[in-house]
Specification:
Elements lengths: L37 H28 L5 H18 L3 H7 L2 H8 L4 H9 L3 H4 L17 H4 L2 H19 L5 H18 L7 H12 L9 H21 L18 H10 L25 H10 L8 H17 L9 E8 L5 E8 L13 H16 L19 E6 L5 H10 L3 E7 L4 H10 L1 H6 L3 E6 L18 E5 L7 H12 L7 E7 L5 H14 L1 E11 L14 E10 L14 H4 L13 E6 L5 H6 L3 E5 L2 E5 L11 E2 L2 E5 L13 E9 L2 E8 L6 E4 L1 H4 L7 E3 L6 E3 L5 E5 L5 E5 L7 H6 L7 E10 H14 L1
Helix pairs in contact: 1-2, 1-5, 8-9, 8-11, 9-10, 10-11, 12-14, 13-14, 15-16, 19-20
Amino acid sequence: MYAQRPLAYAPTPYSYTPNPALSASISLDEEVKLASSSAERDLYESLAEIYSIIVTLDGLEKAYIKDVVTESEYTETCTRLLKQYKSSLGDDTVAREFVDLETFKQTWGLECPRATERLRIGLPATVEQASHNTPSANIGPTATGAAGGASGGLILTATENFITFLDALKLNMVSKDALHPLLSEVIQSVNKVTDGDFENRGKIIQWLITLNQMRATEELGEEQARELAFDIEQAYQGFNADSDEPLHVLDLPQIYTKPSGTEIIRALDLLAIKPKSFNVNTNEAVKGPAVHPTGVTRYLTSIISSSLSWLDTDELREAVWDSAAARLSERSGRAAMPAMSRVFTIPSPWGEELTLTLHEPSLTADNLGMKTWVSSYLLSQRLHSLLESTPQLVPAESTTPAPKADRTLRALELGAGTGLVGLSFAAIRGKLASIHLTDLPDIVPNLAHNAALNVELLTRTSATVTTDVLDWSVAPEPLPTPEEQYDLILAADPLYSPKHPKWLVDTVGVWLSRGLDARVVVEMPLRDAYLPQVQEFRERMGQLGLAVVDEGEEVGYDDWETADGGALAKKKMVIGLLTLAAIPTVTGVALGVSEQRKANERRNDERRMAKFLVDVETEGETQEDGEVSGKRFVLRNNKVYLDDPIPSRRKTPSHTVTSFYIEYPELDETKHLKRGLGLVTSIADNPPMLGWIYVDEDTHELKYGNRSASVEHLVGPWDWTEDETTITLEESPDFFAVQEDDGEWAVYFDRDGDELEGVLEEQDKLDNAFAPITLKRILIEQLLQQATSKKGNS
């Protein structure tokens, strides 16, 4: 009945005809497993979650751009998605399969550019760029403060987060999982205070991005950690600069609200008054927002008088009371401050700034050595270049040979106090020197403690430091051997009693080496009450055979201040660099420069270092020749004059020139002049001092002075003629004696070869009497031999 009906559509060449031989043997009702194990299933589920997070985040970014969601909704959702993304990748198996975001996107065909950028930054857009509608909250009573009306509580919270982050770095917390959450809290709390782009705010974002791209357990390197600390400190300063108005005490956690112990202690940290920096140009790297002093004392006493009964433990209550009491004592002046640790930065010869931490116990009248004084700070800042700039010595008869170049320099600090000078010296000199820090019995334990505090730095620089008691008033028995004496003695602010000059000089005489390279470096403040002691010290050092070869003055600022942290009067300090040759002899007064050893052609020419007097010879043809012939070089009023060789016959008191040749110590800016040998002279006997004879560039007069006075004038080369008796300057023996208006004979150098006509005309002295003279070296050693010979003959 039903014939086979034709198909209603034409067959196609691609129609499928089942082939029973190729049919699958599985049932369509059977479950197909995508994973062969539970671990594999968990992996794929995690990857699927990451996939969905990326897609969702991309959609959220689009919704935020179109203003479909509010800022608070966006921030909350974005933060949650970012946390879920990071949590998913916290599994090592998932992270290995994921590889990285770009690989994952390519593998699964994802684009999602907005989500990609958000995941790279790791922060919601409202955090990356400060929100203008961020809700605010107070941790204390309402108070409008800085930064565009932000509450003091928000400023306080942001400050706490900055300090917490920087403290974490100081504690060497450098892993991503430790730093990223803390830095995120910093930027979020900052955004609640201000939506302004303050200086270095971008640094916080950059570091958040850097940390976000690190693996959870990955750590910053040492250089990265230092750079991060510097950048965040700069951002903190920028944040504080943006908040000009100080906090009010009511912005702090109030006792009646029963805040936690942590909140109280953080608030008390903000009220800490630290000593002023010794460096007037230094800004504190981390400085909290200022708190207006009004009401602070009452706030502190309210904490001390409170039972703090809501705090959990007695230890926490004690910690709060101690901190409040410390803040109260700080407002009673520097002398009432509690024990503290202070950080000092010391320059090094290789350009690195070395950091020392020193503990200072609470200060009392009988242990002033427990405080770091500005004298120590100023001297520590000079140590990196001190020995290079200090002149070398000229040997005297009793001087022992110079130490070998590979010998370790032995240094001693007298009255070391907290040890800033000695520890700085040790860190700078490293294995090239050892130093022994000494003080009185009550001070040495803290001195040793400070050496231990800086053991990491001292170990890194291969420094050798020892500490012990040394009482200047007690002579050591037995006396130290030459091997036990020191090449260098350091002392900062050592005089605060009438007895100290004698004690100090006696101690120097006992412990200082008689070697050619021996040095004493002393820094003393110019306190009016102790100026007589300073003068006595100089005189006694001169009697010991030491000569001042370099000294100067600079302004220093001590850390005494008012109760509210205001600076007191500035204190002017003087640096005195005292250098010696051989102690036992008067002729041990010495001066020289490091360039002497560098001058190869004169290195071993001891004849040029022989001390001599300068006498004058003339042709004897004129009356003027007769008046000046046989006269001797003398010094007075910064000029060189001619006078009687016998001091008792001189009408005007003057100092006899005692000279020798030595290479002139050029400054860095004048080294290219290479002016060769200078002419050194003693310029005072008590205390013994040395200077340079030079020719004034304008007047051509012979004058004398220190390097600062002479360097811009004609200082050399001085030399002698072949017979080694006639003195020359610039290879010329042409000197003149010119009679001054007061009848005295001054000495001039005929540099222009015109018999002084030009310079005398400029000075209106053409009519003054003058005579050409020859300068003769009279060796002191020969005079002594002649005197001895005469005594023997008689």
